[in-house]
Amino acid sequence: MVHITIQKRPYNEAVVTQRKFFKKTARGKVIKIIRERYLRDDIYCGIIGCRLCTNGTTAVLPTSGDTTHKDFPCGHFILPDTNIFLTQMDLFESNQFAFPVILLQTVMEEVRHRSLPLYNRLKALVKSDDKQVWVFYNEFRCETAIIRDQDETPNDRNDRSIREGAKWYNSHIPLARPPKGQKPPKVPQVVLLTEDAGNRGKALSANIPCMSIRQYVEGTRNPAQLLDLLASAGSEEIEPTKATGARAVLYAEHLPSTALLAGVNAGQLHQGHFNANSYNYLEGTVPVPAFAKPVLLVGRENMNRAVHGDIVAVEIFPESEWKSPGDEVVDAESTLKNDDVESGDEIDENDTLVQARESRAIRKSMQALAEKQPTGRVVGIVKRNWRAYVCHIDASSLTSSSTSSLALQTIFASPVSRLLPRIRIRTRQAPSLVGQKILVAPDRWDRTSRYPDGHFVRALGKVESKEAEQESLLLEFDVPYRPFGKAILDCLPAEGDAWIVPPKSSGGPVWRDREDLRELIVCSIDPPGCQDIDDALHARRLPNGNIEAGVHIADVSHFVHPDTPMDTEAASRGTTVYLADKRVDMLPSLLGTNLCSLRAGVERLAFSVIWELTEDANIVNVRFTKSVISSKAALEYSEAQMRLDDSSLTDPLTSSIRLLNSLAKKLKAKRMAAGALDLASPEVRINLASPESSDPLVAPSNSPNVATSSNSKDKKNGETIGVMQKALLATNSLVEEFMLLANISVAMRINEAFSQTAVLRRHVAPPKTNFEKLQDMLMKRKGFTLDVSSSGALAASLDRCVDPEMPAFNTLVRIMATRCMTSAEYFCAGSVSRDTFGHYGLASPIYTHFTSPIRRYADVLAHRQLAAAIAHTPLHPSFHSKVHIERIMDVLNRRHRMAQMAGRASVEFYVGLALRERGEVLAKTGNVGGVAEEAFVVRTFRNGLGVFVFELGLEGLVMFKQDVRFDAENYTVTLPSQTAGREVTIALFDKVKVRIDVEKDKNTQRGRVKMTLVSPVDSSGL
Amino acid sequence: MTTALSKVEISYIRSSLLSAPPLRADERSPEDFRPIAVETGVAPLANGSARVSIGESRTGRETEAEGAAGGTEVVAAVKLEVDGVGEDKEGGKVICNVSCSPAAYPHLSSPALDELQSDLTSVLGSVLSHPSLCPKNLVIVPGQKAWSLRLDTIIFADAGNVLDCLMMACRAALVDTRVPSTRSVEYRAPGKRNEVPDDIMDVDEGRNGPSSLLETREPSRVVDFELTDYWDEGEVLEVRDSWPVCVTLNMLPTMHFLDATSQEESAIPLRLHAMFAFPGGKPTLHGMRMAGAGTSDLSQIRVLLKNAEKYARNMWTGLEAKLAEEEGRRSIKAREKFYGRRRR
What we know:
CATH architecture of the domain at 76-228 in chain A: 3-Layer(aba) Sandwich
Structural class of chain A: alpha+beta
Largest sheet of chain A: 5 strands, mixed, barrel
Shape of chain A: globular
CATH architecture of the largest domain in chain B: 2-Layer Sandwich
Radius of gyration of chain A: 32 Å
Distance between the termini of chain A: 94 Å
Number of domains of chain B: 2
Oligomer: heterodimer
CATH class of the largest domain in chain B: Alpha Beta
Number of helices of chain A: 28
């Protein structure tokens, strides 16, 4: 019989068995919380083969510890204190740091108490396969549990608990290894690592091996690389910089978080995300709910060390001190060019110079007449949202550039993103990092320093090498790109790519409640080279004269079940990310490109939406069913277009497409009549073709919107990267219309079935104020009025914005109008009121995403909800929780945004490469003019023009060094012209010709597009 | 105690008390108390708590079913709650409540029980909720937030002398109470500081406190608070040694006796309740009450009060010693016991 011991103790031993603490709730109440504790004697030490702890099977710590450290020849384990994890997480995450770690429960809990993000990283560390980390529940083992002494602070108590743990290990290990024969056994030691000198002292006096992290790392085999990973906080106390004493204070002190909270609650402070201005590094904004316009922060002191993305608390100045945003481009690089790193700070005249220059920049840009907006200053940081940033090394900040130099140097790392300040790091590898993309994590930003201090995390590779650029993009936009782990791959069907739809006669579970639609003439229409085909269509005449149309979507939810590792991963990835040269999948490719992909001639599982439509495309009836289909053809847009246009073809497939097309046209007409917007965004396609291959561009002759290859001529000159605008064919619109119809039908159905938790998508109508600027521009420059009272009115007035001399003008206005709008978002039906469900752009009262479950997680959710709504598969319990759905929606919205930005950035990178290549080709052929393109002026500044190059989908800046006459009211800039001998005025929306160069910053190797005016004025001299 | 005593019984009790030497059913002398048991920290979720019993405790004994044989038993618990404060007041209050377990008074109807409860509540309230006793450290943010101290007592059994028992339990619970330590958090709006350059303000008086009449600084805008030490039980109440004990003198003309049992209580005409505290050894009378049908004159009362003070001082000293011992038992001793067992 099993012997049961009751570990619970009577309440009069409360001090041992209970832990009491107080907690303040969000509503300001204080509650007393009691945690009971049961002590046991069978908690395993985690060392493989320990003789005393017999019941452990999952031990991870090697028997003899790590023997490579020079101070511990007999082997050792490390036992870090909480402060180590709070500051040096990067060190532990580095794959060069492979020492066995004992992680005490006390430390875990303290980390969680101090910082949740760090705690999550710590948890990931414990789980990762390549680390030897053992969590020891010291508070539950009777030998290591301690009781808080009278008047002992929690901190002291935890320190004592950690020492107690270390002491126990050091006595436990020898006990487990009794001497054999004469030779004393080699007993590994457990080393306590802590940055707290007091704790170290106490540990040493108790005979516990103990050292600081720096001391420890210096004794490892290759200290140089690991030392770089040490956060700068550690280095400060050991090697104080010479100027420490006399540093001038640059910034006001941040208020403590509790004071901020109090201020925010009292309405005296406002909390929001800090957005840096990419044009002017001395300006930022914080959108807060209290004001319609975001709060403006002008100047370094008022931004007070806020970094883009931080949640800050701002104080609003009295209204008399409100300002308007600057109208000048202030570039950090040129203003701060000569800033010295080592002193960086600030006593020399260099500093006063910088200050003078900055204040001039601010003053100058403040003269504008534009409307004033709330202005304030940052008084404290509610939450830093710092992560590791992709940076370049500023070569000019190196003191010694010989590649053999291993001296510790302080250098600047410039983040790729213009929204971030330079970060000062200390490294021994500086010379070898020049010309590389590196990852740098900021650690802190002192009041005395103009720049944040950080540390080097790892190198990504050579600048402009595809791998480095790719990875840096993914990191910069926080796209999870690790290969799928084993647990996830285990969720795939065991048959692998041999999986097929079982024969219907087998009567297996696959066929349960599944319609056999294999006989239908179904086809898919996709962009060229598409591998993850998630939708297919069919249409046929019904005997009653109506038309049956069907949309068949890959049945991903058949393979991805809720609450599995694959599902969790897909939910956290949220979407497949498409870069110009890479696809980062949301689901393992076996599913995405094979089992779920609706390839031609293969039986596949699908989720079908089947309508009965009248000739006028009115819906008579709609039904949803899981099905099995067999696609008859996987067409590209152009192939489908060819079938449409070739009247000689009369096969069933072609007539089905024609039927679909006629319906699509009517659907579109209806949608437009309802006020849907035809928006535009600068979309270009990157063709990464090898020079030998034929023209990769597929541009059928008779498409309505002919794609223009801007470089078909140049291509012959050996160019490898093609940039072209995306082609739009009638068949694109055909597919799009049916997908919209399917999404709307599904949205209505799931909202009916799950009015609280349905996963929907909406596009909130933009506030009218968003359009004010554009309306003013159009009115003043072109005399067009923009009616923004409704989406229909906007669509109509956009249609009227036509300049017969500039056919592209309309598209340009559409692009600019699109930028004034809010972005669409996923939401949970129960979280917002019913009347805000509408999709503004599509002019649909309700909408969701259903049609791309292979690449979007929201669609997977919609599939599950629809399957439950038609009583096919019951819904997983978690999907009945609104809070749960809301949490997923937040992740999806963020991932979606990030994926879009990553995709755009990737295109931009290739446009840059293409430009350089083209420039080189032109230079070879003796053309000194470089690449010149037509562009539209989209913004006017006091010292420059914002231009948009249509052909390349590229937005750039033309800067003038000289002052020019700037009329902010009328959006014009007047320039002197040498050639014409008189002044030329350039206005907004004017078509100009610009010369585009890609120049590399000498110091940071950061490529940047530089534009200069060619006509009407050559601005290269200005 | 279930039924009223008959006249014969009353006269029997009276005459034995008046005989020389006085005789009591349980062989006590008039000035003797039944054994008193005090235990603190009985309610882990409360901020302070105590159980006090006079006489043999009924609950927890195997003879529970026997009924009348038990003693008087009371549990008191203190709960602190964050409360808003009106503009004019400093904040902090003590709210008392007494509930009587119906099992303690099986003979009482429910309205009668309510009456008894409210009667005892008002006695307790008039003494303990008095503003002079309100501990200063109940204030969290002056004029904004304060703890309201809820002192709830339950009478589990009544075998006479319930008020003494009640007051003792209250005192024990209040002494046991720890106020979570808080720190007020303020946000001071950007005052006029920036407008007046510092060097002008920097006159000496300006620095050394608000001596200048021209001091324009606004009162500190403290609006919220935080808990300083999330583990600590906190600090003791400020007026710890001012919470009184109560001594009831049961008077039968020409003599008085202490700690009456239920029967004795129903046999005597007059009782005097006197609440004394001895902060720093100095006696302070916090309340006095006469109850019963009999009468007494002022000269008598003066003597009685003198006696009451003497008895109260005895009780006070005993209780102090016990409370100190309890505190030790729950922290240091338990800790030693724990480490001792590990060493074994």
